[in-house]
Amino acid sequence: MTRENITDILCIGCQKGSTSWLHSVLSTHPGTHVFPNIDPVTSTNKEAHFWDWNHKRGVDWYRTLMAPEDPALKSMDFTPEYAFLNDVQIAECKALNPGARVIYILRDPLARAVSAIRMHMLWRFGKDHAEPLHMDDTFRFFLTAARLTQHGDYLRNLTAWRRHYPDLTVLNYEDFHTDREGSVRRIFADLDLDIEAANQQRLKKLMGSRVWESAKFPIDRPVLMFLQGLTWRFRQETQAELGMRFAEGERLLAD
Questions:
Q1: Tens-digit pLDDT profile for residues 187-236
Q2: Parallel, antiparallel or unpaired: strands 9-11 and 101-106
Q3: pLDDT tens digits for 152-170?
Q4: Residue 98's CB: how many other CB atoms inside 10 A?
Q5: Residue 209: what are its φ and ψ, rounded to 5°?
Q6: What element of type H or E holds 33?
Q7: pLDDT score, position 86
Q8: What is the pLDDT of residues 21-42, one digit of tens each?
Q9: What are the backbone dihedrals phi and psi of residue 104, each rounded to the nearest 5 degrees, phi first?
């Protein structure tokens, strides 16, 4: 059997948008394939990072990494950094994966930025860190390292990807909390996967949990308001162009 795509299911983000959770959910289905973890070349068995870390290894490397033993299985690459690829890179992705289904999860821009900053705090300070994040050089370091503008510019990213994948699936992260079962059923159906064929024990456990949640490190109010200003345009554009509304950021500001 000749495979049409190197990767059949691509999730391009957003980072801190439950991509790990969704990857685990889809991996409960016997019709999906998870590539082997070869850390640090890949990030676990979820993120192949071909277009940002590993392009120098060549297309044959990517094809070998993603290839399932049974060519009928759907291979998955959930790399959030793909969201802000340039047009040349996305065109190459389309050439290699012409029939791939592309998923883009959008999260409240402020909440996503806060979660990303907290992830970087965890990496640097460890889980027991208790000092609030201030408006200082440490925050400015995290601001750059987290690439908040690139990850958060949803409309730019979506427009770039839709030029090549006009049927791209856009999801609201908050639906995983307000209508988790309905959202998951729609995703399975959209990917032509029968949810009843999934491992129901594993799926049930995942439906009641999160795979990854950033530690809630304290953040000073001025830092929060700076991030609100930084992400305001992304929120407005997403609402105006996509009709997508978010509530998570408002709750952060109200705390």
A1: 999 999 999 999 999 999 999 887 566 778 999 999 999 999 999 999 99
A2: parallel
A3: 999 999 999 999 999 999 9
A4: 11
A5: -145, 170
A6: strand 32-33
A7: 98
A8: 999 999 999 999 999 999 999 9
A9: -130, 115
Q: Which fold has domain 9-254?
A: Rossmann fold (3.40.50)
Instruction: Provide the residue ranges of all domains of the chain, joining segments of one domain with +.
Output: 9-254
Question: Is residue 135 a contact partner of residue 220, using CB atoms and an 8 Å limit?
Answer: yes
* SS3 call for 27: coil
**Which pLDDT tens digit goes with each residue over 110-121?**
999 999 999 999
DSSP-assigned letters across all residues of 36-61: PP-TTSSBTTTB--TTTTSGGG-HHH
Q: For the purposes of burial, counting CB atoms within 10 Å of the CB of 215, is it exposed (0-12), middle (13-18) or buried (19 or more)?
A: middle
- Tokens standing for residue 233: 């345009």
Can you list the alpha helix ranges (DSSP code H) found in the chain? 19-26, 59-66, 87-96, 109-125, 137-145, 148-152, 154-162, 175-178, 180-190, 200-207, 221-242, 248-254
Question: Residue 171 has which token pair?
Answer: 């999801």
C-alpha to C-alpha distance for 124 and 175, rounded to whole angstroms = 31
Going 116 to 121 to 122 to 128, the CA torsion angle's sign is: negative
